[in-house]
Every structure is written in structure tokens, then in C-alpha cells.
UniProtKB/TrEMBL annotation:
Family matches, as PANTHER family: PROTEIN SXY (PTHR36121)
This protein's name: TfoX/Sxy family DNA transformation protein
One Pfam family in the UniProt entry: TfoX_N
SUPFAM superfamilies hit by this protein: YgaC/TfoX-N like
Domain TfoX C-terminal: 118-195
Residue stretches making up the TfoX N-terminal domain: 16-103
InterPro entries reported for this sequence: TfoX-like (IPR047525), TfoX-like_gammaprotbact (IPR026256), TfoX_C (IPR007077), TfoX_N (IPR007076)
A GO BP annotation: establishment of competence for transformation
Amino acid sequence: MNGGSLRRIEQAKSCFAALGNIAIRSQFGGYGLLADDTMFAVITEGELYLRATESLETAFRERGMVNMTYLKRGVPMVMRYYWVNEELWQQRRELCALAWQALCETRKEIKVKKRCNGRLKDLPNIDASLERQLWRAGICNIYDFRLLGARDSYLKLLQQQKNLGMKVLMSLAGAMAGYHHAALPNLQREALTEWFENNALFPSFEARSEDRACGPHL
């Protein structure tokens, strides 16, 4: 541990003591800062970066905070961690408030992901066969599925298997809503039918996320 990071860690522990039991662990070539086992910040090369969820990024950027960049196998990756400059360090009360927000929003995000990381076949209309098709399309769990939505998930399936019928689309929409596809409201069925005729028969879709293989999370 270099001297700059060591001093910053001690400074952060003192500043954020009210957030809970502060601990550190190796992370991103530096040190993750955890409050009661939830990581809310990173210290690397003597600098502190607060973790931002989607709901916090705009506020952090409006403050002029910039993203941390992490080199992974020589490739720079922009991370959802935002630099705390010396001016903000001098405003301890405000810095603690931002760290508290980062911690609370991170905990909320973790809870959502835990709820959504179940097996796809636990949803209505999705049997083991359709689950395997979704895996091959890179949709590994309920979180991925909800992130894409029924229509884009269907288009990703089309990239793997042509000539999928409308029933699969209805099944995905029902799974998203939490009930059998036969129970979809008529207005929603009509909208899906129109979309299917206009889009799914002649798809032009680029995957939003990186292609990946996945399987059951045991």
C-alpha cells in the first residue's frame, strides 16, 4: 500500500465513521471502502472515488465530479465511481452526505438485483426450453430480462433462432407482467401484435449488451 493511499484511507475512515463499521478490501487495483459490508467508495493512487448508481450519476456530474478510469488488461474502462477533489474534502459535512447517499443507493441496488437474479424458468410462461434459448441469447437471469424488456428479448432470440412465432412474444410479455400469456389485456395483445407485424417479421436489431454465454446460477 503506497503512502498516499494509506493516508487517504485513514482520512476516509475518520470522515465516514458515522456510516458504520468501515473496512477495506482490494478492489480495481486499489482499495474498496465498505460500511457494514457494503462498498460505497474506492481509493486508488491516493484519491477517493464515491460509487454512483444510475440515480446519483447526474448529481455527481453536476458537481463537476469525474469518472474513475480503470485499466483492465490494458483496456481503459470508465467506472461508476466519481472523484472527490480537495475542495470537497474541505466540506466534510457535504462529503459525508454524498457518501451516505452513495451507500444507501448502493444498498437499494443490491436488494433489487438480489430479487431479480432468480432463474428465468421461475417466471410464468418460461419453461426449461425457452430458458435455454434465452441463455444462448445472453439473457442469463430475471434481472437481464427485465432490463431488456419483452420486445428486445424477443428480438435477441430471433438472432439465435429464426421464425419464432407470436406466441413466444406473448409468453415473454406475460412473464414480464407476472401472469400467463392468455391473461394479457386485449389492448396489450393488440399492441404486441402490431409491433410483431411491423418489427419482428423484419428485424434489424443490434444487441445492447455484450454477447455472453450463460447458464444456471447454482
